[in-house]
Amino acid sequence: MHEGKPICSPPDGYTHDPLDTRIAELDLEQVDDYLVDQRQVLSLNGNGLLYQTEPFIEELVITGYLRFVASIALDVPDTDFKVTIYEITEAGVSIQLTDDMVRARYRNSLKAPEAVKPGEINRYEFKSFRFISRRLALGSRLRLVLSPVNSIYWERNYNSGGVVAEESAKNARVAHITLYHDAEHQSWLELPISA
Predict the structure, then answer these.
(1) CA dihedral 125, 128, 130, 131 (to 10 degrees)
(2) Fewer Cβ atoms within 10 Å of its own Cβ: the N or the C terminal residue of the chain?
(3) Distance CA 27, CA 29 (A)
(4) How far apart are CA 28 and CA 18, in angstroms?
(5) In whole angstroms, what is the distance from residue 117 CA to residue 80 CA?
(6) pLDDT digit string (tens) for 64-98?
(7) In this structure, is the dihedral angle defined by the CA atoms of residues 31, 35, 36 and 39, taken in order, positive or negative?
(8) Given a cut of 60, is residue 1 above it in pLDDT?
(9) For residue 144, how far is the Cα from the chain centroid?
(10) DSSP summary character for residue 139
């Protein structure tokens, strides 16, 4: 995440094994203050990507809908992505602001699913974040986490490209996800900044 001219750097990646349920097991515990709970992020175990801005040198007000555009390549025909945005205060408190999910096969249309071609870099647009209005304090940062959808509350996608509702562990495929952010394949977070 960067203001102004995009930063070009080597791609980042993670591996998602749909049979690894360690992070989903956190859903079994009752958490009353889930908006400031960091267990999910601290338990990624390399199963996701985390980006953070520099501390803000002045207050920043964001009001509206965020949008995240990502250039991503997979080696499986389908997988699920979740993007979560947090404010990290100067004191280190994490506050979840909003999130969005995309199933790879529906990257271009919710009506016409398309299997992903292995190795092909595709554009994924996360544009269904919840509306937010937040004054980000001086010294706060924004954190973006891209991770698989791995929860007891959501249908499990085994990454095989079949009918997800009919799949089981025997269909599971390990996904290798690569996020690009270079001159040709950019990824960015768009913020609705208020004056």
Answers:
(1) 80
(2) C
(3) 5
(4) 18
(5) 15
(6) 999 999 999 999 999 999 999 999 999 999 999 99
(7) positive
(8) no
(9) 7
(10) T
45: DSSP letter: T
Task: Give pTM, 2 decimals.
Answer: 0.90
Task: List the one residue out of 27, 13, 25 whose CA is nearest residue 175.
Answer: 13
* C-alpha gyration radius of the chain: 17
Predicted confidence (pLDDT) per residue in 108-151, tens digit:
999 999 999 999 999 999 999 999 999 999 999 999 999 999 88
Let me know how long the chain is.
Answer: 195
* 68 SS3 class: strand
Which residue has tokens 């199933």? 103
Asked if residues 79 and 154 have their Cβ atoms less than 8 Å apart, the reply is no
What token pair was written down for 27?
């859903």
CA distance 56 to 31: 30
| Rounded Cα gap, residues 189 and 181, in angstroms | 12
CB-CB contact of 146 with 187 (8 Å): no
Please give the CATH architecture assigned to the domain spanning 9-190: Sandwich (2.60)
The structure tokens listed for 28 are 């079994």
Residue pair 14/81 in contact by the 8 Å Cβ criterion = no
How far, in Å, CA of 98 to CA of 155, rounded? 20
Domain-wise residue ranges, the chain:
9-190
The answer to whether the CB of 99 falls within 8 A of the CB of 84 is yes
DSSP 8-state class, residue 60? E
